[in-house]
Amino acid sequence: MKYDVVIIGGGITGTGIAHELAKYQLKTILLESGTDVAFSATKQNGGVIHPGYDPHPGTLKAKLNPPGARMYPRLSKELGFKILPTGTLVVAYSDQDLKKVDELMDNARINGVEKVERLDSEQLHNREPHISDKALGALLANTTVMVDPFEVAIAFMENAMQNGVELGLCQKVRKIEKRADEDFVVYTQDRQYETRFIVNAAGVHADDVAAMAGIHEYQVEGRHGNLCVLDKVLPIHTVMFPCPGPDTKGIALIPTVSGNFLIGSTATMREDKYDVTNDAHGIDELIEGAKMLLPDFDPRCIIRTFAGQRPVVLNNGNDFYIRESETVKGFIHAAGIQSPGIASSPAIAEYVRDLLANAGLDLKDKSDYNPYREPIPDFSDLSLEEQDALIKKDPAWGKIVCRCETVPEGEIIAAIHSTLGARTVEGVKRRTRAGMGRCQSGFCQYKVMQILSRELGIPEEQVLFEEQGAQVLYGKIKG
Question: What is the pLDDT of residues 325-336, one digit of tens each?
Answer without folding.
Answer: 999 999 999 999
